[in-house]
Write a structure and sequence with these properties.
single chain; 680 residues; alpha+beta; 5-stranded mixed sheet; DNA-binding
Length: 680
Amino acid sequence: MSAGAAPGAPGLEAAAIRAAELRGFLQRYGHEYYGLDAPSVADAEYDRLFRELQALEAAHAELRVPDSPTQRVGGAPQNGFAEWKHRQPMLSLNNAFDQSELEAFDKRVRESLDVDMVEYAVELKFDGLAMSLTYEEGVLVQAATRGDGATGEDVTANVRTIRTIPLRLAGTSLPRLMEVRGEVLLFKHDFVALNRRQAQAGEKEFVNPRNAAAGSLRQLDSRITAHRPLRFFAYGVGAIEGMESPATHAHLLDWFADFGLPVCDERALVSGAAGLAAFYASVGARRDALPYDIDGVVYKVNRLAWQRSLGYVSRAPRFAIAHKFPAQEEQTQVEDIEVQVGRTGAITPVARLKPVFVGGVTVTNATLHNEDEVRRKDVWRRDLVIVRRAGDVIPEVMMVAQAGPREVVDYFRMPTHCPVCQSEVVREEGEAIARCTGGLYCAAQRKQALLHFAQRRAMDIEGLGDKLVEQLVDADVVRTAANLYHLDLASLVALERMADKSAQNVLDAIGKSKATSLSRFVFALGIRQVGEATARDLARHFGNLDALITADEAQLAEVNDVGPVVAASVVRFFRQPHNREVVLQLRAAGVHWEEGAPQTGATGALAGKTFVLTGTLPNMSREDAKAQLEARGAKVAGSVSKKTDYVVAGAEAGSKLLRAQDLGVTVLDEAGLKNLLEPT
DNA sequence: GATCCTCGAGTTCT
DNA sequence: CTCGAGGATC
């Protein structure tokens, strides 16, 4: 790519030629980068050409034209935004939330037009900001927000900095005047990168792409907007003069594309209510994988003549409707902020919420993680907050939407004493988590320890869930894991809501759990810092429990992924007489496993290979796949990195698959995995 | 000493 | 799934 060197001291004529050439390059590269996502030059090269053009324009004021790419950088701060009256009002759409409303819409349209079948242009409903761009003789002269639909704010200086928006339309046959309607938004990956930059610069991070886009557009200093990677998609037309618009909406969008306006590819033509429903389902399934946020899809009668004859009812068109997805963000009230005590004594603040329907489920609780998080988000009791349940399953309080009365009682204070056992709560220097110091004296910690012991990945005692553990601990029937193996039918049936049948089932499950493996047993003990993976490493390295119990810190540190902190934690655990006692009692009660010689280094067909599993495989459970891989010496990790050898992706694979594709990691489906497991 | 990677721990709802 | 923090690596 040779763009030539800048002339030393060019005459005006040479400068004009060079400037025109540079504008051509920059426009093309800008389009490749932002429009097609396929840059053909490095950023540094773009910047070099850009600065050269800037220098030329600085030297020759007459070369500074409004559609030059340099005019995107933005000018000095303004004092607020001027009002702007739209030539044609920017209307909002009526919403449909379910199938019946969608069928009603189609029926109304057909009856009103007196036809049997209607063709619809269908597209995405972006979660961004509606914008109107005015082009005169093909040159962008003005940009405004929707505002109340009739009058918006003039944000021309900021919109000029959006590189996907052409400052001059392509082509020779152009309307004298045209209002282009569309949406300004941020792509998800740009949003993530922007927030990373904000965090590094010590600036406030944005809650979501929409907020970030809105904040960026409302910058009074458009030089800031210029550094925000905003995008634009055109989807409609307002006033138009000096040219006939095409006959259908689909052609209108093609026409926009020919002008160089960015138009989203996710659009189609469908017929009838069934076609609408199919598009809705298809987009819904791919929603999380799209590079931007959407809150639904939009259906428009394709023929513009029919659109005109359908007209408007109050402030919304009768020819179009938005079909919304269930909200992934909702507003609700914090009724209370309580704390929970975890297995390790961690005191976690939890927001009790007024029930709210988000992302398909009713949410009543949301974790606030720790004290710093409560302060950072500045959540008080009775505040109105935004709750999200995005691609993620776990609800999260994103931000305060509106402060509540905020009286003294509404302020959250970390308790100084454990609400369960009254022991002192301590937050170590440099730690984010406050902990109850009660240890196993604390009933809450004993309950969590038992639940951990019984969980599927540990001793796998079916039927020993939180309700039962709660009762057993409260009645003081069970104090340690060893007590479980001495339970009898009578003491279980004495508990509330426990009939003979279910009591016997629990006893059977406890009996069955006696046959286990060393790694499950070590994990079940609940040693701090020793999770499933570390327990497996320890079990493999030492081979038998006595070797592990008597190991000193130096011996422990020889194990993979065990350093001083983990080693000290293990030594501390087995030094406690009551922990040794419980282990003895468990073995005496019949808990057993196969003990072997210490092993170093696994062997197997897939030894040393790292796998990551994501999504649902058609015929194999994730657990099963994991076990089979590990049996062959492979490692199954939780997240994808460049050290990952294979990613096994099933249905509804999420971010891990995207990341694998980003990093160029080999992706297998179930069949591919089977091939590796059982080479034929 | 910084950076990357992984693991542990806590969490929600059906 | 996300965060924080321990371990490994350069």
